[in-house]
């Protein structure tokens, strides 16, 4: 009984290491793994997890994409970006609607932001005068 | 009516028009600033007397002198921007500007200047604003003698103290800034000078350059900021006579240089920082006559840096003087004073006869594996360090100062 409980505990610990859930960004404490700047604005933040379960945090989607493109050795498990309309909340990129350009001004001039729904994105598209993109389009645009 | 003409005539005689002075606040009948601005014409002076003015957003859209006496308080009560300047040649002087809104999407400010030239913002006190002073697309403006304080915390989103965007020929002089995200922030700003400012206790950087070329910052104090000072993606930035002090933390640097070129770092003091200077992708910089005192790392020079010249600096009481992450050395070290130098000077010319290798073995080891720091000052490490000094094997042997000084430079 004890043994199985131990195994259970250990497996939980191990699984939680690579659960694929994003780690929250500690604002003004964490620094960007690409540009070294301290991350101050969660709306533009981004995070990626490698297959091995390592986390990298970024202050701008552009930094994450440049980082991902510069490294072809380690395979990536998941990408996350900050929700533009929420305070420091990370969303998986596949479910996001991106706006790029216009009057968006991000820390490293990727100038792209993410929304959780297409309604929100459409609402801000005219306001920010930006272009609507999918994750794939955004990835290849840098 | 009598005292209207006197100052005005002197001041605006050349304009061939009669300028007026409009008084607002006790003991004058006019109590409302917005009304005063509506009544005014280009060239007028509005003198606002002591008192509390809760008029929300005040827009100055005429060329006027807006002069507070006895620090009248403009309070936006946490809604939107306090003072918006939408005319050239406006002077704003002597106000206390408090409580702008705190909104993340539209960046409300204490004072914001929209696409204007020759605006002067002098001797104001700003307290508890999201952004302090924001110059957007401005030329030839002056921001002088302001005290800008906010009360940001680590977890909270807050704006910058003095934020300059897409501007030219700015003068940022003698301001005191604390509690903002970045004390002073330059983005696409050229040919500007930052002089005699004190930037302390800001949450991120004391001063932050992005894509800003041909600027200088001279005789400023940056102390106790979240991550020191960052100069990034810029060319020809001159950094003279500044003090970088007490920036502690894992990602904190006295001065972070990233992707910059052709700059000049002269006569600065780096005291008690985790890393005095951190360089990455930096080229053709001259680092001359600086003091590096009591830092964890004096300079961290990444392998991506080249053609930098480090000469005539003092390295005193640092845990590590220099550290790097590669074996390629494309930078030169000449005639620095290293307090860890143990050579001799037989011909008494003040220059050590034995070259000095500033990169210690242990610095290389900790760069590769941070947890080896545990062994710092152990007997084995000291032994290894000594043997490495005699016969360099792991550290690059061209990482060398051939003319180390015997005495520290009087800086």
Automatic annotation (TrEMBL), chain A:
PROSITE patterns: PROKAR_LIPOPROTEIN. It comes from the Bacteria. It holds the Pfam family NosL. This is Nitrous oxide reductase. It comes from Flavobacterium silvisoli.
From TrEMBL, chain B:
Residues 40-187, 194-354 form the Carbohydrate-binding/sugar hydrolysis domain. Pathway: Protein modification; protein ubiquitination. Gene3D superfamilies: Single-stranded right-handed beta-helix, Pectin lyase-like. Pfam families: NosD (PF05048). Keywords: Repeat, Signal, Ubl conjugation pathway. Residues 1-21 form the signal peptide. InterPro entries: Carb-bd_sugar_hydrolysis-dom, NosD_copper_fam, NosD_dom, Para_beta_helix_rpt-2, PbH1, Pectin_lyas_fold, Pectin_lyase_fold/virulence, SCF-Subunits/Alg-Epimerases. SMART domains: CASH, PbH1. NCBIfam families: NosD_copper_fam, para_beta_helix. This is Nitrous oxide reductase family maturation protein NosD.
């Amino acid at each position: 009984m004890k043994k199985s409980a131990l195994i259970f505990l250990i497996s939980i610990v191990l699984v939680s290491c690579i659960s694929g859930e994003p780690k929250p960004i500690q604002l003004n404490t964490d620094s960007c793994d690409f540009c070294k700047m301290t991350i101050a604005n969660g709306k533009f933040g981004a995070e990626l997890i490698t297959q091995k379960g390592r986390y990298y945090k970024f202050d701008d989607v552009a930094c994450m994409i440049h980082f991902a493109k510069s490294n072809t050795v380690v395979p990536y498990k998941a990408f996350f970006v900050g929700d533009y309309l929420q305070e420091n909340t990370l969303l998986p990129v596949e479910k996001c609607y991106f706006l790029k350009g216009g009057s968006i001004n991000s820390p490293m001039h990727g100038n792209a932001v993410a929304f959780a729904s297409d309604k929100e994105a459409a609402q801000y598209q005219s306001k920010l005068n930006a272009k609507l993109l999918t994750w794939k389009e955004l990835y290849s645009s840098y | 009516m009598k005292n209207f003409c006197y100052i005005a005539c002197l001041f605006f005689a050349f304009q061939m028009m009669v300028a007026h002075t409009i008084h607002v606040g006790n003991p004058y009948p006019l109590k409302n600033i917005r009304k005063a601005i509506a009544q005014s014409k280009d060239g007028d002076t509005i003198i606002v007397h002591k008192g509390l003015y809760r008029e929300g957003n005040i827009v100055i859209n005429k060329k006027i002198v807006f002069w507070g006496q006895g620090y009248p308080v403009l309070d936006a009560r946490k809604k939107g921007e306090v003072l918006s300047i939408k005319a050239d040649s406006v002077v704003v002087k002597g106000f206390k500007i408090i409580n702008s809104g705190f909104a993340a999407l539209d960046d409300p400010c204490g004072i914001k200047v929209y696409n204007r030239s020759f605006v002067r913002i002098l001797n104001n006190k700003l307290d508890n604003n999201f952004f302090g002073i924001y110059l957007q697309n401005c030329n030839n403006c002056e921001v002088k003698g302001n005290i800008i304080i906010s009360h940001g915390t680590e977890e909270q989103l807050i704006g910058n103290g003095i934020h300059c965007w897409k501007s030219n020929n700015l003068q940022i002089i003698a301001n005191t800034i604390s509690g903002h995200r970045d004390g002073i922030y330059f983005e696409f700003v050229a040919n500007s000078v930052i002089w005699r400012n004190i930037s302390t206790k800001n949450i991120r950087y004391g001063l932050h350059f992005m894509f800003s070329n041909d600027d200088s910052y001279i005789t400023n104090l940056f102390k106790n900021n979240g991550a020191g000072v960052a100069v990034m993606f810029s060319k020809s930035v001159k950094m003279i006579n500044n003090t970088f002090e007490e920036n502690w933390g894992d990602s904190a640097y006295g001065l972070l240089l990233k992707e910059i070129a052709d700059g000049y770092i002269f006569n600065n003091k780096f005291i008690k920082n985790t890393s005095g200077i951190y360089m990455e992708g930096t080229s053709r910089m001259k680092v001359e006559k600086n003091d590096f005192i009591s830092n964890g790392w004096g300079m961290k020079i990444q392998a991506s840096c080249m053609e930098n010249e480090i000469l005539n600096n003092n390295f005193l009481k640092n845990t590590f003087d220099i550290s790097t992450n590669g074996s390629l050395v494309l930078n030169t070290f000449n005639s620095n004073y290293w307090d860890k130098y143990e050579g001799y000077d037989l011909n008494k010319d003040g220059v050590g006869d034995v070259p000095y290798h500033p990169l210690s073995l242990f610095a290389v080891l900790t760069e590769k594996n941070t947890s080896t720091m545990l062994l710092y000052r152990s007997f084995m490490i000291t032994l290894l360090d000594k043997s490495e000094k005699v016969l360099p094997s792991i550290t690059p042997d061209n990482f060398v100062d051939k003319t180390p000084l015997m005495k520290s430079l009087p800086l």
